[in-house]
Design a protein that fits this description.
Layout: E1 3-4, H1 19-29, E2 33-39, H2 54-68, E3 73-80, H3 87-95, E4 101-104, H4 122-137, H5 159-175, E5 179-182, H6 184-188, H7 195-201, E6 208-211, H8 223-234
Parallel strand pairs: 1-2, 2-3, 3-4, 5-6
């Protein structure tokens, strides 16, 4: 692993570490790139960064980037849900403040009512899948994080899963948006990464990135990441080393 594109800091209030802690650790590990992608500001409960803090957040991130500029490539980004009413905020963050590496981590449907971690019904799976495809079609997002997040509580691989992942993978294939293999599920013993999903995905022309979804600097390349790398290799999934190589 030489890059990580899914990284959280203490600013999201459920992680630990300053920006510089992550950059220092990434340099120690010999990483070539790292993206900071704390949860974006919006009005729903799974957002943790307060928009009122964006000025100080941005100033501290820019200072840390400047400090490490000659040692590692750093991308400014956020992990975002697709919520139509929030798209102007995302454009402001991207176009005015330079947060170009926006990734979709869809923790809900597009109405904000369905929590993806608590999905148990086929209709909820379909609503989740529809919101993912609609969001990717906007062109706002560089990568699809943990597409299998709803398998946390939706325990059965069934026809609904296949239909929803067909739509998601077809969209990613046509737009050349890489999908993430998220190792945080190993840490939390959740339903992802799903190797049933990855086996199903082999029928599509997809690009993959393994990401730590780090909530602590020590997560950047810990045993869950290494275990995921080994299992992915055993399943014959080719993973791109960097985002640039997904293109």
């Amino acid at each position: 692993m030489i890059a990580n594109y899914h990284t959280h800091s203490r600013w999201c209030k459920h992680a630990t570490g300053e920006f510089s802690d992550y950059f220092r650790k990434a340099v120690e590990l010999g990483f070539k790139e790292i993206a900071m992608t704390d949860h974006v500001c919006h009005r729903y409960s799974w957002c943790w960064l307060d928009f009122n803090d964006i000025g100080e957040f941005d100033a501290q991130l820019n200072a840390a980037i400047e400090e490490y500029r000659d040692r590692i490539k750093i991308l400014k980004g956020f992990e975002c849900e697709y919520l139509p009413e929030e798209m102007d905020t995302y454009r402001y963050l991207r176009d005015e403040l330079g947060y170009e590496f926006l990734i979709m981590g869809q923790h809900c449907d597009s109405t904000g009512r369905i929590n993806a971690f608590n999905i148990t019904k086929p209709d909820e799976v379909k609503a989740y899948g529809q919101s993912v495809c609609e969001g990717l079609a906007t062109g706002m997002f560089k990568m699809l994080a943990h597409p299998d997040v709803f398998l946390t509580e939706y325990k059965s691989w069934d026809k609904t899963c296949e239909e929803v992942f067909h739509d998601i993978f077809t969209t990613c294939e046509s737009l050349r948006i890489p999908i993430e293999i998220n190792t945080n599920g190993y840490r939390g013993k959740r339903g992802y990464p799903s190797f049933e999903m990855l086996e199903f995905s082999k029928g599509y022309d997809l690009r993959y990135l393994i990401n730590s979804d780090a909530h602590d600097p020590e997560h950047l390349y810990d045993e869950p990441v290494k275990a995921c790398e080994r299992e992915v290799a055993e399943h014959g999934i080719h993973v791109c080393e960097t985002f640039a190589k997904t293109k």
